[in-house]
């Protein structure tokens, strides 16, 4: 048995919906005779009478209604296939797929992308903003051509290069008692105070925990775990509690930086890509200009 053509299935479905071969033909841009021949061919191929043709119009037979129902499912699946193919094509047509952790995406990556766009006005760019762990996963799986992370690593399965330096600072709201302190906090005071923190997988959270362990006091005590730097800032300003955030995020005058003794909150911001793969084209250009811009700071 030879399968009917898709246009013939569309025609059959429309005959059932419109009650007329002529109207169904017009909807598909066919002539009435051509539509009649198509339907007859489908009936011969399937060995079934599908359309009851009368002077008052056309209606599907009981067998025709069953076949039309199956045809609708076939056409719906085809629509899904075509939509999926379009999505895949759009992904492949994106000239550069970038993933960036949130601090980098908020403060640095837009400048780098802007410069790359000025050099290549027609270049299509895709940017996914997430935490450092997820950026590394995307780069490893080659779902991003290049990623930018703020966690200290190590980065299994990835090559990396420094693109910038950053340091973290303790911040509080102006109404917090620490805002009036004239001395530096001790590491013990910081670690014994519940903090507003980022989620596990965040480069900021990992940097804080590592720095405090090196100072001999262990990881932070979370008061709130939030999924973005802006949410952490807002919580601190609202008086929820202290936080340790990137110096790049301390632009709001409602945030008061607080010094801490002997804890090194410095960190390196890195580009990452699959190990063993050489960056080329726009990805290599983006890395080069990120490094170049960093050297000017």
TrEMBL record:
Residues 4-61 form the HTH lysR-type domain. Keywords: DNA-binding, Transcription, Transcription regulation. The keyword DNA-binding applies. It comes from Amycolatopsis keratiniphila. Belongs to the LysR transcriptional regulatory family. SUPFAM superfamilies: Periplasmic binding protein-like II, Winged helix' DNA-binding domain. The keyword Transmembrane helix does not apply. InterPro entries: LysR_HTH_N, LysR_subst-bd, WH-like_DNA-bd_sf, WH_DNA-bd_sf. This is LysR family transcriptional regulator. PANTHER family: HTH-TYPE TRANSCRIPTIONAL REGULATOR, HTH-TYPE TRANSCRIPTIONAL REGULATOR CYSL. It holds the Pfam family LysR_substrate. The lineage of its organism: Bacteria, Bacillati, Actinomycetota, Actinomycetes, Pseudonocardiales. One of its GO terms (molecular function) is DNA-binding transcription factor activity.
């Amino acid at each position: 048995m030879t399968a009917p053509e898709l246009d013939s299935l569309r025609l059959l479905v429309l005959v059932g919906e419109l009650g007329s071969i002529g109207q169904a033909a017009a909807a598909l841009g066919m002539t009435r005779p051509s539509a009649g021949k198509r339907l007859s061919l489908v009936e011969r191929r399937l060995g079934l009478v599908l359309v009851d043709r009368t002077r008052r119009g056309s209606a599907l037979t009981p067998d025709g209604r069953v076949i039309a129902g199956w045809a609708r499912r076939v056409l719906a699946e085809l629509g899904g296939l075509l939509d999926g193919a379009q999505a895949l094509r759009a992904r492949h047509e994106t000239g550069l797929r970038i993933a960036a952790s949130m601090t980098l995406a908020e403060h640095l990556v837009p400048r780098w992308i802007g410069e790359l766009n000025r050099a290549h006005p027609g270049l299509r760019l895709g940017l996914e903003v997430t935490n450092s762990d997820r950026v590394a996963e995307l780069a490893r799986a080659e779902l991003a051509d290049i990623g930018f992370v703020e966690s200290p690593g190590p980065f299994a399965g990835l090559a990396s290069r420094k693109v910038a330096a950053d340091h973290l600072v303790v911040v509080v709201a102006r109404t917090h008692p620490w805002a009036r302190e004239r001395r530096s906090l001790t590491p013990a005071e910081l670690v014994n105070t519940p903090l507003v923190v980022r989620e596990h997988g965040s480069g900021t959270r990992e940097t804080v925990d590592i720095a405090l362990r090196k100072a001999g006091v262990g990881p932070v005590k979370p008061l709130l775990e939030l999924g973005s730097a802006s949410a952490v800032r807002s919580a601190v300003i609202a008086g929820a509690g202290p936080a340790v955030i990137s110096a790049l995020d301390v632009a709001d005058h409602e945030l008061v930086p607080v010094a801490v003794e002997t804890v090194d909150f410095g960190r390196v911001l890195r580009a990452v890509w699959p190990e063993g793969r050489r960056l080329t084209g726009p990805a290599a250009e983006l890395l080069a200009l990120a490094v170049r811009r960093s050297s000017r700071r």
